Amino acid sequence: MQPPLPFRLVQASSFIDPPIGPDSDFDPLIHAIRHTMSGEHISEVATGAATVPERRPLFGLGRHPYIALIVVIAALLYFTNSFWFQSDPDQPEPVQDVVMEFAPPENSIAVLPFLNMSEDSANDYFSDGISEEILNSLASLGNFKVTARSSSFSFRDQQLDIPTIGKRLNVARLLEGSVRKQGTKVRISAQLVDTSDGSQIWAQTYDRELGDIFAVQEDISRNIVKSLEIAMGGKEDALLAKRYSSDFEAYDAYLLGRHFSHQRTVESINQSIELFQESIAREPGYVLAYTGLADAYNLLTAYGDLSGQEAAALMKPMVETAIALDPEIAEVQTSYGAMLGNMGLLDQEEERYRRAIAINSNYALAYMWLGNNLLLQGQLIDGVKVFEEALSLDPMNPAVIINLARCSMYTGNIDQAVLYMQ
């Protein structure tokens, strides 16, 4: 039996962070729920066969995304189950919750947001950026599991012990630290701990000039790999040594741009655009600044008023430059895919996301966008598998959980959908 709600009911452009943006209504979803309650089959939302699907935040998230998502999905699942699957003899028995012993993958790690120990709280972006850069460096190696930013950063300011965080993220190791920035100096302290008992595996403090920040990040990554006794070859060594920027001011503008883009408001996204442009002006060869700018334009289709075609036109020169600079970066291929998606070229979009995952199997954003792409193409079973991969990397991200619940519902597995929402 086919579920009554089409996979294109609401075009979902799920981003790696839980979206927090301006208010937007739930009219399409409410309309569908009402029709479902009356027993009517809902046809695909009329967009016109030649119309490029607009990409909106998942279910039109507003200022209270978590509450809104839970309420709407719970209602959707309840009414769908009541009216369509209640008497289906093929429905499986409810899946029972099983308590399992904590046994994370041995080579798995999460990087918690480093504490900003500077006197100025405005430097939060810098300590966050250092954490994220180390996370990205480790993730690029591909020979161990690295939890995505949105999940590891969700524990900011939470007074939880190391074993608890480890269990929630399903990782064997945690990296935590602090950053103190003062004038042209920076002190970075980092420690790697075992999540089974909170014991310290490695720790070090670096007192350096700001211009040496790239060497510090590389050294921390190398020490982690060494401590975890992970096999290193020439490829892995080159990835750790790779530096995308050689200009601290360009790098600093990029980090601040990322900081604002994560806030997911029209104002913050526009601020990030200016900062990415500043970073590019200072260092024209800084490939990640181009992907950051392309992604910011893409975000405006969800949080601003750009159409997909308008965003694609703005993204195109950024993506083309990034590809010319270095096509073997997951972020580059993912931005390329997002541009193609805005153009309605779903087959080519899928290819770019799969290429990004081949380059970096830890890049959760590529899994997220690939999952949405597969849903738009009607490949529901494959979409479930991709979102399950995203969940393993990003277990605390509500957008991943909602997408999995949605996929499970569309494939008729209501019990599994309810489990995801619990």
What does this structure look like?
- There is one protein chain.
- Helix content is 53%, strand content 9%.
- By secondary structure, the chain is of the alpha/beta class.
- Strands 1, 2, 3, 4, 5 and 6 form a six-stranded mixed sheet that branches.
- A hairpin with a 5-residue loop joins strand 5 (185-194) and strand 6 (200-209).
- The longest helix has 21 residues, at 65-85.
- The chain is globular, with a radius of gyration of 22 Å.
- Mean pLDDT is 80; it is low at 1-68 and 77-100.
Helix-strand sequence: HHEEHEHHEEEHHHHHHHHHHHH
CA-atom Rg in angstroms = 22 Å
Query: Based on DSSP secondary structure assignment, what is the total number of beta strands?
Result: 6
Discrete helix count: 17
The pLDDT mean sits at 80
Shape: globular
Regions with pLDDT < 50 over 5+ consecutive residues? 1-68, 77-100
DSSP strand (E) fraction?
Answer: 5-15%
Computed structural class? alpha/beta
Helical fraction equals 40-55%
Largest sheet: 6 strands, mixed
Distance between the termini: 25 Å
